Amino acid sequence: MTETTKPARASQLTPFGKVLRKLRIDHNERLADMAKRLGISGAYLSFIETGNKPVPESWPALIAEHYELSSSALEELHRAVARSEYTIKLTPEATPLQRAAAEVLVRRWNMIDDNGAGSLLELLDDIAPDTPEGEPA
After folding, report:
1. Domain segments of the chain: what residues?
2. Where does the HTH cro/C1-type domain start and stop, copy by copy (predicted)?
3. What is the CB neighbour count within 10 angstroms for residue 15?
4. For 80, which of 16, 17, 37, 41 could close a Cys bridge (C-beta 3.0–4.6 Å)?
């Protein structure tokens, strides 16, 4: 099951786009400068920053290399990529019941107000605490 959405406005930056913009500011670069450094067009970079194109898998490492980022900065890039993804995929290991629950949540998502979303987050924190990827709960 996959659910895809895009940012509300085309000019709205994703979390990954915000990290890239800060990186450009810190290095006194324009979008065109960063695009040239990465070997892409400015338009393509802009599409990625605004969520209109997915972040290529190799980009966090490529950006870390080009900008000589620390390992913690690379981890932040990976987190920003994850927060910027508007497609959520269930792992193949998901059980039929887990898939059914996810499908119901996606179908009814727009019916849930902020109070309901907060309640869901609290419930999920209770039954499945968030842990760094790859670590057991």
Report:
1. 2-87, 91-127
2. 20-74
3. 16
4. 16
